[in-house]
């Protein structure tokens, strides 16, 4: 089955719907009209650019190019995690917290999938590596951002309770244990909801794309199940690592709560 090619007019009609939505939000005074239009413009520019990059990568399978693209994706994801924090950690920690966690969770899981499960040859074949890494980073980024936001916000709101536990002789880990658990749960809720709704409430994007491209539905389903499990593992490990790191950073070597390390 050949895929139906989209024209500029087709995309313009879809864009018109976003413009109408922005006009509606303006009329309702929601205050998000500008954000909607800027986000739509960013989506267009970013996807067009990645389309050009992917064409170059597909034409020339090169480990160095793959490494450069993967590094750029990781750094941009780390910046997004930092930018979404209301009270981010000061200095390099604000950026490193999410970036390091994503590196160990998404890269390890992606490498495992490419070399053992999918077993592509070479393992860094861009057709598989880039989409897989992109989905892993996108979902893990959301989980980590939610987890860190909940932890730092709760630490500020419950400062007295935390310090009271420290005075009673609790260790820093014990004093903040409940907050860490809540932050980890919140970070994993989106991917749990996505798995629970997959196939019933929604058809995931990758599966939909494969079906539109002509892949047999059952084959598309198998890939989607694999991706959902990989994303869940990456998001879970990344969120746990980031919240654990952040929890330690909230205290100094003498177990004193250091909210001054947050902006």
Task: Decide which structural class fits the backbone.
Answer: mainly alpha
Q: Count the strands?
A: 0
Portion in beta strands: under 5%
- Element order: H for helix, E for strand: HHHHHHHHHH
| Helical coverage, percent range | over 70%
Note the overall shape. globular
**Termini Cα gap:** 55 Å
CA-based gyration radius: 21 Å
Number of helices: 10
Please outline the major beta sheet.
none
Mean pLDDT: 89
Q: Which ranges are low-confidence, i.e. pLDDT below 50, for 5 or more consecutive residues?
A: none
Layout of helices and strands, plus pairs?
Blueprint: H1 8-27, H2 33-59, H3 63-83, H4 93-117, H5 126-157, H6 159-167, H7 172-175, H8 177-197, H9 205-212, H10 217-249
Helix pairs in contact: 1-2, 3-4, 3-5, 4-5, 4-10, 5-8, 5-10, 8-10, 9-10
Task: Describe the overall structure.
This protein starts with 7 loop residues before the first helix and ends in a 14-residue tail after the last helix. The chain has helices at 8-27, 33-59, 63-83, 93-117, 126-157, 159-167, 172-175, 177-197, 205-212, 217-249. Helices cover 76% and strands 0% of the residues. By secondary structure, it is mostly helical.
